[in-house]
Each structure stands twice: as C-alpha cells, then as structure tokens.
C-alpha cells in the first residue's frame, strides 16, 4: 500500500465531500482506468458500494458504548454518585459497593447493544459478499465479483431473479424493446412487476468509447440531450424478473443509494406514560434534595448542640475538626449517596422488560391471527404499547382500511345511457355465498404512482377472502410469484342491452370510431396493466445459468426488432412484433400470451384490473403491452396494435391518467383519459360549447355518477380526444424539452400533460364496488362506546363517502350531519362555522339537555378543509369538530390527512391513532401518537411506517379495548408500585438519621440493601406488569365503556403518584417505629435492630403488591414465595460466611440469632398487621384471608378501635407495641452490661 501524506488525504476528503454535494453528478466510465491505483480513478470521490450499519468495532466497543449510555441522564446521575462515594469526607459506605448497581445495569445494556450490533455486522457482511457480474476490460467479458467491489462508473450485468447491487442507469436488456421488469418487494413489500425502460436515444451499435461520461442527461451523437428519469433507473435492492438480463451503469453506490438514504433506522416515539414518568422522576429528585437538606441541617444542629467533642468524631492529621457548617455541607452529599435509591435505577430496565412481555402476549393472541393470509399482528414499535390504552381520537382511511379493496365491476354509463348489469349483480350475490369455497389468488399490488386512483388516493390492503386454511396458504405463497384475480373480480356477466349495442356498433359503417367501441378500448388501453400467463413462474431460466458471463460487445451489437409499426395486419403476421412483457425469458419468442385465451393481468391497483376484465367481457381483450405498443383483440377477433406515443401517468394533482396512441386503422392521434369526475368535467370542451347533444350526454353522465356515488360505488370518467397532427408536433417539442430538462423536470412534465388534456369528449363512466370488511360497523360502534371519536379521511367524492359512512355506522340515521362541502369562499366557511357553533352552544346551555348528548356529525371536503385549516379558522373548526360524534373528510389529499391529525393532536392535547393501508396514509400514520398499518394487497408502505400492523380493521377492537387497556393499567400500576417500593425502603434510612445524629449511618448491611432492590423485590413487580388482568377480556369486549378509565390522565397521574408516595411514608413509619419501640432501651447492636426492620419491610412491600394483583396465577405464587425464600437463603448464607465484609460492623450470624428469638417474629407480624389493617378495604384476595383471620383473632381485644379511625388505629398499635415489648425485654435489659466496643443504639 502506497503511503500518502495526511495533507493529501485531507485534500481528497474535502474534494470527495464537494463532489457528493453537487446537484449535477458527472460520471466517467472506469474501464479506461482499470488496473490503475485508487488515486488515478476518476470516480474515487464517490462512496464505495460496501455498507456498514453497525456502530461499534471490537477495539472501541467499550468507550463508544459508554458514550452512548451516558447520553441517559439517569446513568450519569448514578455514576456520579458512585464516584462521589470515593471521596472520604462524604462517602456513606464502601466505595466499591456503590458501583455495583449501576455497573450491573450498564453491563446488561452493553450486552444487549453488543448483540444487536453484532447481528447488524453479520447482515452487512452477508450483503457485501453477495456475488454480481462486473465487466472487465482486460478479460473482455463479465467476471464475478462481490457487491463490495462495485464502484460508481462500473458496468454491471444483472440476470433474471437476481438483486440489483447498486443504483443502475439501465442501458440495455435482453428484451427486444429494451424493457426490464423489476420487483420491489425488498424495498416496499410490493410484489407486482414494475416496468423500466433502457435509456432512450442509445444506438445498439455503440461501443465502449461512447459510454465514457454521464450526467443526469445523455447526449445523442447529434448533440441532442436525452433525459433520464426514474423509469430508467434500477434501484439497489430490486429484483429483476421475467427478463433474461439487464445491463446498467452504476450511478450511486453504497450509502448513497436511494434505499440506504431512506433507511433512517427505527423511529422513536415516547409514550405519554413515559413522559409522565420523567416528570415524576424529577419530583423524586426534588424530594431527595429536600430530605438531604433536612439531613444536612439536622447534622449541623446536632453538632452545634454538643457540649463537648465526642470520642467518635475523628480529627484530621493536624488535630483539627471540621466546623459544623462544613461538616453539614459534606453531610448533604453523604445523604445523597445514602438515599440515592429513592430514584429507581432499575425502573427503566423493568419497564422495557414489561413491554417485551406485553408484546409477546399481543403477538400470540389467536383472535388477532388472520387464518386466510396466515399472518398475525406485528409490533414494530416496542415502547408505546401502553398508549394503546389511552386513545381518544382515531383517524382512519377508507379504501382498503374499512373496505376490502376488492374491486368489482358493477355498472357503467356510455353516451349518457345507464347499463345497470342486473345479471352481473345476481351473479355476484351467488359468488359471495360460495366465496368460502373459492381459491384466493389475488395479487398484491403497488404504489399509487400510476393510474386509476382517482376517486381516492392509493390505499392498498389485503384481499380478505373466506376459504380453507390450506388453500389460503397456497394463495399467499403464490402471490410472490404471479399475480391473479379471484372469480369475484374477473367474472363479469355482460348487460344484454349493452352487448346488443356493441354488436350494432361493430356492424355499423363507423366501425371502430363508434363511441361504444372507444369506451371499451379506453378501458383496455388507458392503464399500466402488464399481461402475463397464468402458468408463468418467476424462477431462473436454465438459459440464464449458462449465460452468466457474456461479451460486452455482443450485448450492444445485438439487433433489435421494430416494435412500433402502425400496420395492424403486419403485426398480426409478425409473431415477434408483439411480445408479452411479463413472459418468462424461455417464452419470449412465442406469440402474445393472450393468444390462447389463458391471459392474466398484473395491475398496480385492483380497480385497474377490474376495468380491464370488464373490457375483456365485452370482447376487448388486452393481449400485450410494450413501451411502444398495446395489442387489443376486438369482438370481431381482429388484433389491433396501437402505437403508444406517450403515457401521461397518474399523479395526485391531476387526478387522471392519459395514453396517447396512433390508431392502427385511421392513423389518427387519439388521447384516452380516465379520472375523477371533478377533474374531468372541467376539461370537457364540446359539451359546454353549445352542442346540445354532447351537453346532454355530459349532464346525464354526471347524474349517473351521482347515483353511483350514492350507492357507494367508486366512479371514473372515460374521455377521448382526437389530436391533430399539428397540435401533436407542437406538443411533442415541449414534451421532449421537459423530458430532457434537469432543473424543474417534474414541473415541466406536469405542464406538458395539462397542455394536452383539454377539450376532451365524454364517452362514459364506470361504477366499481369496494365492499366493507367484515365486522367494521360493530368495531366502530364499540370504539365509540369506549369514548373514542372516529374520523374517516378519504379521497372519495362526498356522495360515496356519505354512503360508506352510513354503511359502517360512522353516521346514524338520527344524526344531524353538518355538510361543509363545495365551500369556495372563506367568508362562507366562517359563516357556517359560527352559525353551527352558536346552535351547538345553545343546545348545551339549555337546562333540558343537561344529561343528553347531541348527535352531531360533520362532513367536509378537501377544498373546504383547506380553508378551515387556515390559522385564523383552526380554533373554530376544532371547537366544532370536538363536539361532533364523528367527522367525515372527503376529497382530501395525503398532506391534508397528516395536517388534520397533527392539528388535533397538538391543539386538543389528546392521544391520536391513525390507521391506513397505503402509501397515501404514511404521513398520517407517522404524525399520530400511534400509527397502525393494515397489511394489504397493494404493498407494505403503511406497515413499514407504522408502529403496529394488523390484517383486518376488526382487529383494532381487541387490540385497543383489551390489550391496550391491559398494557396501560399494568404498566401504570407497576410504575406507581416501583415509586412506592423505593420510597418506603429509603425512608427507613431517613427515619434512622433522627436517632444517629444525621451521620449518614445505615442500620442495614450495604450488601443486603443492594440485594433488596436488585434481587429480592425486582421480579414480582415485573411479573405483575406482564401478567396482571384487572378485568377479563370478555368483560372488556362486552363493556367497551371500561376503556374510558385509561383516557385522559389515565390511572397513572399526579394524584395517584403522590398518594402512593404518602402511603410509602406512612408504611415506612410503621415499619421503623415498631422495631424501634420494641428495642428501645436495649443494648442490641445496629444490625440486630436493622434485620427485623429489613425483613418486615420485605413482607410489607410484597404484601402491598399482593393486594394490587387482581388475578392470581401459579406464576405469581411462585415468584412471590420465591422472593421471600431467596431473601432468607441469601441473608442466612451472607450472615454465615461474611465475618468482616463491612468493617467495622459485623453482620456475622445476625439473622441466625434473630430467627431463634421470638421477638423477631413478633415484630414482623405486628408490622405486617398494621399494614394489613390500614389497607383492609383493598384486601380481597385469597392470599390475604388466612393472615387476616389470624391477626384479627389474636389482636381482637386490643384493636377493636381500628375500624373506627385510622389514626386511633396507629396510636393503639404503637401503645400495644411499646408496653408488650417493654415487658418482654425488661429482664434482658437489666442483666446486660455496656460494652463500649459494641455498636449500640
């Protein structure tokens, strides 16, 4: 390796950064520089293809992990206290002991982080060493290398069913039309095929010298620039399908590829309970500061009141003692070290363990398992499970979320005449009855970037069918290989009148120019459907294995076939002229896939497939599709090959898709357009120019569209336009400029599309049914009874949305529906809001309506919503919306969906949940407090962006009402118990300071103090947080109102926190003063006093948890009894073997002596009885019954007054303890003599 100066390395680093930051990337082929050193490579400034997602290395793991862990303030706090304990003047106990708890916590965290990072390292290593083919100039053919060897500027060959190693600019494919099909399931979960085209403008005879430089555009030999967009880019992680091989030029590699740039790691959401927890930890810190301040002040006063210097105060080397003020200052830090366990160090780890256990029970819930798709609920976010129990607002998509996204062709309108397809409706009803016997083989589809999402933005979801488990699994397995449709969607019974009309049109003199013929030609042509054979499997062809390495020159010198002839007869004679683009490479030389009638369509959305199958029913069969042509067989049997001049793809702004073709018979330029009615009607030319007949057709079609929408059907308008040759040439020039543009390319392409889509002629409209999912109305009803407000945000037109709203019980017949649609002016919107709010306020102010709820619902469209979301109207809109039972937003965009969710979340300060199934729901899902994705048939974008994933909307009911309630109550009660446990224990040390001169002395051995929180009392609350059930699942499902207990502040709030802290103070008083009064005046040593105190505190703390447990199981019994047994075993062993573990104190044989003394048992029983009687109203579990009976029978004569008043109960017990223990110890005390070498009270 050549040595380079640090200055040269710094220079290269700066140049690399500048090269990567340039908007325009200029690339040079690596072939002429093959074999040269790295410093002479032209593309050396760009990142290599090797990726590294792990954070640590073996050498720097410890310092880097410590750095990461010290980002948590809790770790810094406890490490700081441990270090502080090493200072002699402030240490409370052995310095090494103070490090043990935090070291254990950080060690376990480091193990977890190391294991996760090691798994990432293994994944990176496997990925970087995957094989690929790179062209070598020296070898003059492709050689096998590794992914990590790929560099920007290389030529890479990808064969069928292999994964693309880097972002490639597609130059050539084995397909005659230079088309490559890819599958993006590794990126977004979509299994449908997408088409990519080789860079246009390249000659097949170009040699390597022509491929030396690239930018975002490419110059032809005549210096004309050719643009390159996403349609010519193969992204890293995609899989090549149904194409023998593809050759590309590496433009982005490694961490600069799109897939790696989008991989930002998991999103972190903080739950509402966690935010509350952090506030209470701050209160604990404040409480600790006050207690330490009291200890410091008490130590100062104690030293001030000493008449002479006691012998136990040790002076320094010069014989001087610290002043009381300085000693009290030191004592403040000593008290912090002593009382530090008031801050629960193990709470955060316990919370994580509890959440993992809760997620396990959610994942294993059989009711959340979908047998048809063989899938279950997914928990993609581990830290917000408890938020499921506090949801107040749900924002739901409609298509694919409330509905099945199973598109069924129901009716159509052509030239102003409605064709209801009654026979088809009867056939569909029959299929629905026998659907459970059908095989489920509908494909998963993809992004909404193409056509036919006009009535609503794309919203993919699973096809929900009923069938046997065996057949369902077969169908799911086949989804990854081919795309099909079920009989419900493919079998359309034609309308008799429409069939007769088509027959007449076919025999008429107008022939193919008849509007009825044009209508079905538009259905067959204006889409992005790929034709495939039902038997084609996505598997590697044998020929590919034999051709892994081929000549670079042969690839680019191979001749292409012309695929854009305008002659229909020539195309019918030339079998190679029309090739089905989704065929396996072994069948590329065959005739079109549909020639035999065994044709299947892979659509990017199910409604596209439904329209193509409807056209096929009437004899207009889509046979093949290439980038330059579409082959359609008409009812006469003739195959027409339409030359595709351009495709204006669907986008969310235009809400339409257009295909410009040359008619094979007339030679006319024909533009077929389909889209949403409101986007199409304003583009019609002739109907509003004075032509009475065309105007009537448009009016009748609009009437039919409204009727379809009222029936809940998704509607599309179909139009046609004849483009003159002159207009086409003018438009083509602008289009080419837009395609070749670098800056503002998208805007220019949008403008060119809008320029052509004018003066359209109405052909007709279609109505497609999208049925509701199973149990959607019951689920919405239950959610509303649970106090959750449901909003539906959809892109459908108002009539369709209103129909679905009533069908799913979002709206009810008795509701007053406020209609805020078609509002254009802000003044009108303000007037409606003010008037409605005034009526609502007047209703609530009426004394007759005190105990009633006004049934108000709101329906608003996207245009009105844009006005209502303006800053000056937001508050009024929210004031009205929060008084409504439900809100229905129609014609809204994905951006508006996210804005609505964010506005409600931030302004109303409520917990929000968003549920959707498609790419248009991603923003909404990410903005909400809890995002739920529905894994559907059009990809996994929503699932990949969500916190939880389900397969059916009905699963939301149990996920929230049962698991959400359980997760919240369990975790809330566990956190409250943790604060109580630590506060009760640390106060024992605090009360002792009043009797030891606030000297920071502990009456419990330091090791036992550590073991108390680390082992003896750590597992029971964790199991309590995982397994406790305050209410059964059946009760929660049957009484949804129980869910309301978790809404708002929930069970864990300011009040419950401070009540538990006061309870801890009281119980620490009982636990401390019972042994104190028992041993008062005796000469027992410090650990003899502390051991029964420690034991009784264990019983009380565990007994408190036993009272809180609502449903006892065998696991609870084992853990609780095991904790007690572990305490005695460890303490007995420690007392037996530890002679001088904690000098100068001596814990040797302490517990053994205590267990031989009846006083030990009496103290433990009395302390526990006081606790039990104080909490006797809560004691309803079987575990407490024997103890209550025993205690009541034993102390009946003394404690009858305990049921009258709490304070009198405490006083009576203290009197009883005092006199009983005084009498018992009198003889022992008088016989003892003082021994100054012993530690005494």
UniProtKB/TrEMBL annotation:
Main location group: membrane
Cofactor requirements of the protein: Mg(2+)
Topology relative to the membrane: Multi-pass membrane protein
Gene Ontology process terms (BP): phospholipid translocation
Source species, domain of life: Eukaryota
Binding site for ATP: 397-399, 608, 650, 674, 714, 794-796, 891, 897, 920-921
Active site residues of this protein: 397 (4-aspartylphosphate intermediate)
Ranges that cross the membrane: 73-91, 97-115, 277-302, 329-351, 974-994, 1006-1027, 1057-1079, 1086-1107, 1113-1137, 1158-1174, 1194-1221
Family: Belongs to the cation transport ATPase (P-type) (TC 3.A.3) family. Type IV subfamily.
Protein's name according to its UniProt entry: Phospholipid-transporting ATPase
Highest classification ranks of the organism: Eukaryota, Metazoa, Chordata, Craniata, Vertebrata
